[in-house]
């Protein structure tokens, strides 16, 4: 297993090789990921504390830094999602990128490697390392292969994320030293730091450092401004990776680090985080409605959907957390699909302005159908993954905070409005352009078909995913309830009435 | 004077002898190549001679010099940097100056001055070293005398260096009046006896701080930096940025640590303010620069601010952080200036940002080296600069300097902006009209290029796997 993991990381660092090699290498890794999943699907994830793979090498012993990768259900699912979208993003840039292919795929693979690293790292130093590693190639990807306004967008992206990342580094160091002083054992290892005892005020600051990094990445309402720019200027694969994966590193970070490391501090600000999440839901939806640029529209829907993640993650109950996980996956799929759609439309029409589109259904029913499916997914139609996810989050949130959950539900209505507007403007209505456009090619059909299957699968039968992450989620809940026991008895009462498992609701 | 003393001073002796030898050889009219080779050789021999480290110094020498682990480390860095600069110099001067040979004497002399500074434990060698370094630099800065900026820069440096020397002398005099000694550790003893320092001492201390601040180009004493960087020949700029600053910084550390400057709250406060101002203002001023040399000048101000931050944390980790950061800063800065040197043409330095438009697409190696160097300066992971910054932050947070840590984070974000600007320029689509000068000296070109590659590999290798250098620094420091 350890060797497989190493190959996983190093195998992708093959620079300057054309697209086939990129595709093959990622397919191999994807296959590997799937094998791990399948071979563990039957096993109980409660074994061995829920950690499937644990790989540790000494790196910088003097600082207590080790090259420590570990995988549990949560990271396994994230990795699978990463690789799946990775394959698709390589496929969708197959023809789009004509110049400097070698360097392009080098960057793309490097981003993917960074993201996989983020999902696997259990050493905080290593985590920060990967966190930053994925930034530079992304910056280059936007800066070199993006559209007109790319320089501005790439700056904004890089500086936002880097600034917040440095805050996280400060927080990591703070945690490191506080824990080191208390225990005499200086270590960046996640498992060592998990049990760190931190004074509440310190914990609050440290938690904020982490949280800011993650919510900027997510991005949540006041920090979202980089997202539409970066999304709309990036090449299609860049948008897919950004929306489908990079945003998810933020969500992952909250689940993996913020809550377990600082349960009490998190509990204290939970209402604020939920409020911000709800603001994000409404705000993103309203802005999405007002956009005329197709990619920007999709980007704002991301802001809205990420608000749900925020809401769910800080509702702290099993239902909501499972919903968050599903939301992460389904949003990755549906937004990825919408971006690929926008990319292929741009390739055909050379515009992203939806006012210049219209009546495309007649020419390209294939594009229209998939567009319909994913627009519906995005507005949360039952039968598709997003519905389950958002439904579960709202159920969970309802237990934690009724008014906020109610407001968030309004977001669902708004999402229906913008999705319908998107469909109306682009595919229906009078035809504005005289030229007829080609429908999907075989390659695009493959991409879309796999995404459609995936989203319907998560919509109809999400149980395998939930099973996989269940152990991680129940652990998260433990952290939270331990904190609640000490601090806030109010919320605890509500937790007691939770259903033990969500099995029946999920179906 | 014992054998071990001689051994200890060997690096200095070799450099001094070499400069005399070269002077004699020039009289025989040997050609540029041989002179350069001898100069390089003397750097190498001197570097090697560092490895046999003396166990103790005899009393007479101990009064003047302090050869501890830290000075050995900085000495090695200085000699290494001298060697690299020497390699880059050949191409640069062969094309531009009909008479490049004296340059090497001055280079050696400046290095000698820097070495004396690094090991000084007494005001005498401190001042003498400083003057050797400065006077050599006056000439070096204005070496390409046909260029307009060169003369301006030389004069500017002359004036300000003279001023700062005056401050330094006056400060030393005041401290001497108060304590009756010029030896660092005796001054410390005196202070220990007194408990509270007198006003005269504090004034002298402040004056010395000003002089050191000038040399290190810390805010608010930074005005000269950009002009001098811009006007000086590239290898000399690299020399100022690395050797001269490192030497001065070592003096600062030796002097302040010996007398325990963190005992006075006022001095800690002032240094904190200077560090904050340097980090922020250095990076802010660099934001809008179109000239790469000026940009690097301002960025070096900020980097000195980071170093001060590490120095302020005044714990064991702090000194390690300073050492590591100096190391990272050296290889990075040398790499960056090396690229600029190689790209420079006969008429002018490749110092305008437009020279780099689309560089990646016609000479990818230079662009990659530059990108890595800039990322390392910006402190992005996978580079030595990141580990350096990480080290400094650890030291600072260990000493509870949260305020400074946050300023460092802020200013690195600002810094990121202009480093990214250059990188973006290099990767943007350029017009292909770059004049590809035919390589006059292919052998030296290859030599310089391989040196650059070596530096780059160091940047990456120690960025990923820094443990060797950390262990080395620890072993040297103990």
From TrEMBL, chain A:
Main location (coarse class): membrane
Keyword Membrane in record: yes
Annotated NADH:quinone oxidoreductase/Mrp antiporter transmembrane domain residues: 121-414
Subcellular compartments: Endomembrane system; Membrane
Membrane topology, record value: Multi-pass membrane protein
One example of a Gene Ontology biological process annotation: electron transport coupled proton transport
UniProt entry keywords in alphabetical sequence: Membrane, Transmembrane, Transmembrane helix
A single Gene Ontology CC term: membrane
Transmembrane segments: 21-45, 65-91, 103-121, 127-145, 157-178, 205-227, 239-263, 269-290, 297-316, 328-345, 366-388, 400-420, 440-461
The UniProt record lists the keyword Transmembrane helix: yes
GO MF, any single term: NADH dehydrogenase activity
Entries under NCBIfam families matching the protein: NDH_I_M (TIGR01972), PRK05846.1-1 (NF004498)
Protein family according to the UniProt entry: Belongs to the complex I subunit 4 family.
PANTHER family from the UniProt entry: NADH-UBIQUINONE OXIDOREDUCTASE CHAIN 4 (PTHR43507)
Name the record gives this protein: NADH dehydrogenase subunit M
Source organism per UniProt: Solitalea koreensis
From TrEMBL, chain B:
Xref: Pfam families: Proton_antipo_M
Cellular location(s): Cell membrane; Endomembrane system; Membrane
Keywords assigned: Cell membrane, Membrane, NAD, Quinone, Translocase, Transmembrane, Transmembrane helix, Transport
Top-level EC class as recorded in UniProt: translocase
One GO CC term, this protein: endomembrane system
Transmembrane segment boundaries: 6-27, 34-52, 64-91, 103-120, 126-145, 157-176, 196-219, 231-256, 268-288, 295-312, 324-344, 365-387, 399-422, 443-473
Main location: membrane
Domain NADH:quinone oxidoreductase/Mrp antiporter transmembrane: residue ranges: 120-415
EC number(s) on file: 7.1.1.-
One example GO MF annotation: NADH dehydrogenase (quinone) (non-electrogenic) activity
Record carries keyword Chaperone: no
Topology term for the membrane: Multi-pass membrane protein
Listed GO biological process terms: ATP synthesis coupled electron transport
InterPro entries registered for this protein in UniProt: NADH-Q_OxRdtase_suN/2, ND/Mrp_TM
Homology family: Belongs to the complex I subunit 2 family.
Subunit annotation: NDH-1 is composed of 14 different subunits. Subunits NuoA, H, J, K, L, M, N constitute the membrane sector of the complex.
Cross-referenced PANTHER family: NADH DEHYDROGENASE
HAMAP family found in the cross-reference section: NDH1_NuoN_1
Protein name: NADH-quinone oxidoreductase subunit N
Gene name linked to the record: nuoN
